[in-house]
Known about the structure:
By secondary structure, the chain is of the alpha+beta class. It folds into two domains: 2-42 and 241-409, Multidrug efflux transporter AcrB transmembrane domain (Multidrug efflux transporter AcrB transmembrane fold, Up-down Bundle), CATH 1.20.1640; 51-236, 2-Layer Sandwich (Gyrase A, domain 2). It is 55% helix and 18% strand. The protein contains twelve helices and 15 strands. Strands 5-6-4-14 form a four-stranded antiparallel β-sheet. A hairpin with a 5-residue loop joins strand 1 (27-28) and strand 2 (34-35). The longest helix has 33 residues, at 332-364. The chain starts with a helix and ends in an 11-residue tail after the last helix.
Amino acid sequence: MKAKSGWKLLIVIFVIAFLSYVALNGIPLWGPYEIPPLGQQVRQGLDLQGGLYVVYEAKVEPNDPDKDSKITGAMRVIRSRLDKEGQNEAPVSRQGDNRIQVEIPGIQNPKELADILAKPAVLEFEGPEGDIIITGKDVKSAKPAYGQGNKPVVAFELHSEGAEKFAEATTKYQGQVIRILLDKNPISEPRVNSPITGGEGIIEGMQDIEEAKQLANLIESGALPVELEQVEIRTIGATLGVNALKQAIIAGTICIIAVLLFMLLYYRLPGLVADLALVLYIIIVMAVIVIAKITLTLPGIAGIILSVGMAVDANVIIFERIKEEARSGKTIKAAMDMGFSKAFRAILDSNITTLIAAVVLLYFGTGPIQGFAKTLIIGIIASMFTTISFNRFVLKLVIGLNIKNKKLYGI
Length: 411
């Protein structure tokens, strides 16, 4: 039993050491393929590395009653296209009366992406079998209106060729859903209540008339609800300065080393286990950020630091509970089981409440606020795994070595 626990513990240490090496230095695979260091793969935000600044002017009449809804619709389309390019943290905001400002971090070819944002999108009506029924070219007009029960709807009219295709499809798919896609993203999923044979129909299910206006604008134009003219484009530097990221990395490294040393010196063997868990936690968080293509900004770094603090705090709660149980006369194994059991509820409650707050920020926030929420959510989930599951598994292996000197457990 003792030898088995020892071998398992050595394997765990080796795996974490190997993952740490790969995370810091990368590793070649075969031929031209390799796993680069995680630090090189992290996408940095405007405040860390600068990027592209673009301003568009909406070509809309000053007295157009639908001006605001058209500009809002254009901002939604731009937001959607940025998300498809992996630029989730790029802020899109309204500037003045009829301009839209976009800031995109880390762009290598500014003109190419700026052209992508303003080009016509692809509008398609897709049947339940995945077939394309009609496209934006078949739509003659689409207007917001009020239908039965004074409920907001979108009334649309098709060209003759599109009307024939749509009549055939709605007859075939009566009672089923036809999806309306913009750039392959669904913007509406109306159900066919009856065949539409006259080239005119309505789309129901809108919450209010503003939603109906935005959907009508998207359908009628087949792309951006209003023509955009690029009036300004320039590259911008990192708002935190050239050396800010390096300084943050140095400060974070010093803090992590200090925490690792404190846990090791104060809690001894359990502290060593906590250090292994913390290293694994950092690797998991950084790997998820890279895989999910999350753009890391200063608020995002704050979310990581906060979750690191919560992970360390959870370890402290567990180890203090274990010490209390051991001092009451229980064996180390019994003290560990009781310590984890009693600490679990407090750790779970604090993490769940923080997770709820992070989800609310993610849902209602924009830009940097979402960046903070994303890294905080990732950190909370990773810390729950490493603190509860990994810590307990490795600590059992340590106890399996049959080390009975309580001083080595910080007791």
